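Sharing a chain and its predicted structure for anyone who wants a worked example. Both blocks are below, sequence first, tokens second.
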Amino acid sequence: MPLIQFTRNHTDHSTDKGYQFEFFCDRCGNGFMTEFKASATGFAVSALRTAGGIFGGILGSAGSNSYEIERAIQGPAHDKAFRTAIDETKPKFHQCPKCTHWVCLDSCWNAKRSLCFDCAPDIETELASAQVQTTIDQMKTKLQNQDLTKDMDLTSEAVALCPACGAHTQGAKFCPECGKPLRPKNECSRCGTKVEGGTKFCPECGNKMA
């Protein structure tokens, strides 16, 4: 009998009641589950376990070794079920001749090139992706030449939280919660003019500095 192929990318969900297998695409990871198929020998093993638990003694000893019995009885049946599952699932996959991965036909196989999409990407998909990426790159380049800070005060000492109430200042000159001035003491709270320390009135607008 020939060796079983297609064995790496699968999960065996079989139990002592029957057989079920799930096969996965090496590229996208999508799985294909086979239908559950009951096992006649599995019920015999299950009955042996039950009998061993009830009667003990010789049957109990046999029940404790039921795994070995199960392997002896179900080994060929399991292999047959596995081969059948492979035959059912294999048409949904192709093995890429370049990278040798098993990939699903639905999402990962380039039928025009007879290669997986990792080895032969879809041109239209790559073009669409490249167009979007180029648009983003050009947008960033043009944005570098725009002055987005012309109306921002970049030299005054910034305060993130109001020292009086702890509220977020949001870049305001006065706290939006309590109204306390947020400018440094050497800057006029009315017009923003910088003044020398200890000045009582703003030399530009006359505002009281204290």
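Comments welcome. The radius of gyration is 37 Å.
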